[in-house]
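Field log, afternoon session.

UNIT: design team B
ACTIVITY: writing a sequence onto a fixed backbone
BACKBONE:
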């Protein structure tokens, strides 16, 4: 009897305690995003104006910030309207002595990473290598220290043109190289579209995968798009009339419809022995410039065996035509009518509508390495007299005043091919600012070239600087 009484008393006490705990348990009220400001003001006026590289750091501020940032539908449209993002994008190889934490990187004053996803990728103890050719994950595991020694890692850095600061874009999740080597990328509709390449430098398998990064919407993670029909590397791309055209490699070109997320094959080129160095979009034409090899069967190729040429695709009729040039070209297009190129160090503009050529004063002179600038007799080195070789060219519009839109011209350049390989491999980034587009009635302004400091070139090979693109939302 006493046991029953004790059991009942214990049960009643436990039930009462559970009732008390359930009655008086509460969750703390949600924390304000910014104390003193309504959350609606923060999400509609403050957050959309923050640049994309700041937002990943807000994830660790509080749960409230994380819950807002992880729902991009709440701010992505406002970001496109209120936040203007512009900058030069450059693909380059990561330094071999990459800092292990973002704090070390910032203290050294180099490049600030957009997200700790890159650091987590580098610090990961192990991960599976992805076989892009067979589309399946391999069963073996490679340690991060071993893979760091074998895999060459790449990234995309963005130069903020307002204050000349560099910011690193996040890597693609699951890509051993971070960013596929020898890929092609283009800016279209506020997004960065990345196509093909070699995601793993150890396996050397070309990829057909396509990714998009919505920088204009303030996002910092890559989204997978529909894959191309063919795997490709060393390709070039251009955005024209709402579609992305990719050419080059050993397979026919393709066109991507961003709205429908679908790829279609382009008609086969006239000659399959054409090597594409760049692609331009001109009205209803796609111009792929590069070179032909006269006799592809030769073991060695000399300058006389190369014919500089271009292939032109009429997007209306779908027919290809060809044309030859007297020199190697590296071009950029502006507004569909103006073609820019650098020939022997001089900037040349071609007005295709009026068929006029303008040659700017002011030569781009790339200096050789410091060790070879002056010889033992104190005279100028012969390498300093060589004209520069241009590897890529980008032209972007800038606002000078309300009535005169100006231009920014970016180029990757090195010494000519006649000097030693060390100087030829030392590529550098240059910029020239133009106040207005020339016409017959105006006088050409001289071009002043300035070299842009790239901190990542201090410890990484400069020959990895091969592609650029200008982003503007």
């Amino acid at each position: 009897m006493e046991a029953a009484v004790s059991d009942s008393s214990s049960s009643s006490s436990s039930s009462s305690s559970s009732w008390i705990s359930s009655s008086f348990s509460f969750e703390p009220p949600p924390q304000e995003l910014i104390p003193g400001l309504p959350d609606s003001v923060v999400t509609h006026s403050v957050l959309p104006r923050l640049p994309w590289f700041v937002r990943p750091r807000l994830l660790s501020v509080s749960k409230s910030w994380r819950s807002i940032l992880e729902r991009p539908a709440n701010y992505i449209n406002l970001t496109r309207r209120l936040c203007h993002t512009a900058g030069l994008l450059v693909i380059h190889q990561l330094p071999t002595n990459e800092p292990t934490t973002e704090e070390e990187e910032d203290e050294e004053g180099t490049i600030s990473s957009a997200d700790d996803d890159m650091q987590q990728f580098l610090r990961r103890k192990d991960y599976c290598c992805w076989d892009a050719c067979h589309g399946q994950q391999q069963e073996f595991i490679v340690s991060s220290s071993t893979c760091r020694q074998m895999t060459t890692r790449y990234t995309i850095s963005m130069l903020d043109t307002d204050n000349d600061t560099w910011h690193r874009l996040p890597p693609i999740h699951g890509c051993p190289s971070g960013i596929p080597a020898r890929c092609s990328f283009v800016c279209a509709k506020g997004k960065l579209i990345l196509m093909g390449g070699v995601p793993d430098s150890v396996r050397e398998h070309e990829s057909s995968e396509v990714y998009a990064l919505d920088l204009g919407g303030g996002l910092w993670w890559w989204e997978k798009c529909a894959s191309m029909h063919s795997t490709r590397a060393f390709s070039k791309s251009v955005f024209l009339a709402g579609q992305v055209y990719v050419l080059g490699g050993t397979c026919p070109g393709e066109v991507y419809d961003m709205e429908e997320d679908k790829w279609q094959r382009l008609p086969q080129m006239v000659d399959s022995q054409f090597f594409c160095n760049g692609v331009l979009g001109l009205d209803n034409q796609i111009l792929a410039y590069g070179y032909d090899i006269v006799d592809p069967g030769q073991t060695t190729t000399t300058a006389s065996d190369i014919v500089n040429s271009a292939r032109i695709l009429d997007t209306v009729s779908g027919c290809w035509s060809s044309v030859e040039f007297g020199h190697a070209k590296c071009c950029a297009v502006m507004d569909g009518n103006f073609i820019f190129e650098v020939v022997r160090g001089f900037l040349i503009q071609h007005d295709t509508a009026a068929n006029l050529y303008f040659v700017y004063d002011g030569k781009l002179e790339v200096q050789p390495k410091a060790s070879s600038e002056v010889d033992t007799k104190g005279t100028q080195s012969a390498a300093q007299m060589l004209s520069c070789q241009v590897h890529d060219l980008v032209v972007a519009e800038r606002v000078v005043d309300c009535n005169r839109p100006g231009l920014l011209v970016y180029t990757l350049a090195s010494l000519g091919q006649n000097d030693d390989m060390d100087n030829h491999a030392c590529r550098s980034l240059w910029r020239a600012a133009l106040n207005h587009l020339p016409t017959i009635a105006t006088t050409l302004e001289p071009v002043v070239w300035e070299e842009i400091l790239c901190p990542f070139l201090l410890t990484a090979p400069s020959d990895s600087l091969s592609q650029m693109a200008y982003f503007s939302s």
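LOG NOTE: The mean pLDDT is 75.
NEXT ACTIVITY: expression trials, pending approval
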